[in-house]
Amino acid sequence: QVQLVESGGGLVQAGGSLRLSCIASGSIAAIFTMGWYRQAPGKQRELVATITSGRSANYVDSVKGRFTTSRDNDENTVNLQMNSLKPEDTAVYYCYANARSTASSYFMTYWGQGTQVTVSS
Hints:
mainly beta, four-stranded antiparallel sheet, 11 strands
């Protein structure tokens, strides 16, 4: 199995910055994409950023120019640097990984437990 643990959420004023981190552990054979979703109250979960094993990154339009995702393939970690935060960025942020465990021939999507980000106006 593969486990993901996030850290770094919190409360910040509008215009501020936060950095989220996520580490994958367990019986990992390979990881393809990693990234971040978020879910605000009453809204559907939204893909925020993805990054491939080759470090090619994509972002939802609403965060382009403000958020940057990075990845360390050796450490199985993914980070999300969030700058110029806005109240509408308030949500629970979940990291994910498309990974294959050593016990499987297939890639599956694994999820972290979520970390709350609250941006006050």
